[in-house]
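It is worth pausing here to work through a concrete case rather than discussing structure prediction in the abstract. The textbook approach is simple: state the sequence, then state the predicted structure, then interpret. We follow exactly that order.
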Amino acid sequence: MLGRIRREAEKITINGSGIQGVQSISTQYESVARPLDNLGITEIQYAPQGAQTASLQLNTLLTNTLPSGGAGYTSLDLMQNFTGDIPFSGIIDYGTEKIYFSQGYMETYSVSCGIGEIPQTSTTSTIYGDFGTGSFPTQTSETPTSLNIPSYSSMEVNLDEFSSNRMTSFSVDIATPRVPIYTLNADKPDKVIAGTPIEVNVNFSLDVDDYKIKNMRFVPDETVFRNATITLKKNNSDTTLLSYSFDNMLLTSESFQGGVDSNAAANFNLRSFILR
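Step two, the predicted structure:
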């Protein structure tokens, strides 16, 4: 009988924590088997060429956060904790089947929010360990039950120049290169280290009041922001849920827009590189 698996029968657990607010999951692997070229070939033969990995993409609304101080994490957003050296494993449930994966390392992390939106995150990761269905170790899933929703009205941005300019949207993108270290006689890396540098991009959109576009001839001497801090608080509360803070960010681009049906607006990008 033909059937389908609906969204209520799909979920993902990472390091024992059930992820809430998930909008989409995408995971895949590609075989590294390649045909061998030989003189006098009479049949096609295949052999592995390269290390076998899988990928995982996850898009999530920030509706639930970890308990404060839980499991030794530094961020209440579970996925943000994996932008450094920490690996993760997990299970994707779909109907009665499960996909197990281990030794996952995050490569990109993005968080964004705009007027009228709930902040959301997007991540891409590479799986260096096991991946697939079958008999694997089980994980105990703990799912947060209380909502901790930040909104655009509880978003604070600390940049000295913007006291009289209205922020309408932002995004933070963190890219962590990964370097797997393999040894002979092993199909999994002995370890995976964070490459350097880690690239951070922060984008803002403003309804401008008195913001001044920089003179491009002064770049980069006069375009370094000493601090850029974004704080997300629980809706209708002073409770801080998440904070993103970066130093010495270079202003890399600015744009101005105006029209008969919109307010004057500015968009710009700040970028920094973190050495490990």
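Step three, interpretation. The chain has a mean pLDDT of 83. The first strand starts at residue 10 and ends at 14.
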